[in-house]
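Please predict the structure of the following assembly.
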Amino acid sequence: MRIALDAMGGDNAPEVNLQGALEAAEAWDCEIVLVVPKSRLEADLKHFNTRGLPVTIADAPDVVGMSEAPVEACRAKPRSSIMVAAELHAQGKVDAMVSAGNSGATMTAALFHLKRLEGVSRPAIATVLPTLVGRCVVLDMGANVDCKPKHLYQFAVMGSIYAQEVLGLPNPRVGLLSIGEEEGKGNELTFGAHELLKASSLNYIGNVEGRDIPFGRVEVTTCDGFVGNVVLKFGEGLAEAVMKLMKDEIKKHPLAILSTLFLKGVFRDLKKKLDYAEYGGAPLLGVNGVAIISHGKSNVLAIKNAIGVAAESVRHDVNQKIRQILQEPNPEPVKTAPHA
Amino acid sequence: MRIALDAMGGDNAPEVNLQGALEAAEAWDCEIVLVVPKSRLEADLKHFNTRGLPVTIADAPDVVGMSEAPVEACRAKPRSSIMVAAELHAQGKVDAMVSAGNSGATMTAALFHLKRLEGVSRPAIATVLPTLVGRCVVLDMGANVDCKPKHLYQFAVMGSIYAQEVLGLPNPRVGLLSIGEEEGKGNELTFGAHELLKASSLNYIGNVEGRDIPFGRVEVTTCDGFVGNVVLKFGEGLAEAVMKLMKDEIKKHPLAILSTLFLKGVFRDLKKKLDYAEYGGAPLLGVNGVAIISHGKSNVLAIKNAIGVAAESVRHDVNQKIRQILQEPNPEPVKTAPHA
């Protein structure tokens, strides 16, 4: 198996990417194709040493910046590392691609070269969030801002297969993100999606609320990309703000500073539990290939783990399973009592 | 000034409500009308003593339960404490109403008896969230699940006036909750709302992301009620889950237990900063009166503070100011570059 890594993507590229590639090649039994400007390798990266590991180089002279407009940048730079990674995948030269760069550009490049998977209306970004009892795949996280019920149903199918095959969660429970558990709570979009999900073969448990995600009531949550993106960023910001507030408060209480000596182990374990780097990036599900979007702030562990989930996605043939379910006739909406 | 308190609303009613009423009467220079079944006062609450404070009783034999369907319950129980509180307000016998009960029923009762404020298309629930640097009014929090751009504009107007008059935040910055700061990021709803907000006289700074709320980039955030509700509940759940995780981890590390001795002051101050009870309930803005929805878990402090914001809303004549701005002609959408 060969996996292309955009060596120039991310805030800490290319250093952590190179290191992550080596660790992944060692850990996941796959070959890594580093997509990188050869000029960089000849200049400042000349000390890079593959240590005999299966890491090869593909040249891509250009780079798409983190804040460039995705579509315009991909069009203007067909030889950028992200576009070349996607192209190698489309040509069958690699089995998957991973980038920690501009996530819009990763999506654009993947869609441009790989196209949509047969039967999928809209590819979606799936994020794996830690919960009190395990993990939850939440999708869409921002690829689609105005959705129809059918899209939310397809997201649920793709998320379920991913949870089952890549995360190893058998028979994952699926929830529809809404404003109350009762069937009558929601908006036009969720009412429509609810009918499709109820009629499906998924392990659908009905509406879930925002709080059900961290408490782990479901393993898959489907929502439109606007809601998913706002929720994810609010959660990140909230967690960061609370940690900052706590540090500030501790500084104000002289005795509390002592406590940090005792809390080191706690914070280390907490960090491990909540660290996105442990979860290995967000797959773009529904493209005709395997594309993993890694966090822009990725460290070596995050890159290594993103390559790991790419490898698992290929091994378990996630796409073949998605195609199978989505080729079944669409579930017929079940008629229920009118909504309040 | 007289304020009706639904004495039967909330998980800890009527005990904390009675106590909260006394503390509010003492603190906020207003008369409290306790809406409560007289039978309860004659039976198990007979030791209740108003201690000479301006607290009177209005009889309401029925109660709407926390989990009853709002519209049906209000229709079936016109003599319930929440319906009677709203009726007293509509009759001009009180200047405001406060309930910690079934929030849907509070909204239903307020709308039924008070009606909408002139010029307002949709009343909205505004929640005041603590931020790193102060407070932010976020609305709508769930009264309206499918909104049009005009509604988001009106929410922003109402939230701004509330922030200015009741929270004392001069010239509050207004943000439109979206999936990126750039003008081209958002969905159909936010694109439309953006044009109206840009053309308005509000201190509108453009799109904000979820993370900008806890970091306090704006004092007012407008969004549709579906998004607002999901975000609020996700935030509550996340905070609760992280605290639980932390406690569990501390228990696992014997030395860490010692640290809690030093951290008491920190947790007390943190709790005070993050405690919803300090912020006094969520106003239902846009009804022809003052209706405050208090948290179902309200304690004495929360009830007292909810009555406090009711009193401030009356004193500053928030509604007259909302009416004034919304009677000006609607802002004309400004034509901008097409969105990506």
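Chain A has a mean pLDDT of 91. Chain A touches chain B through 61 residues (CB under 8 Å).
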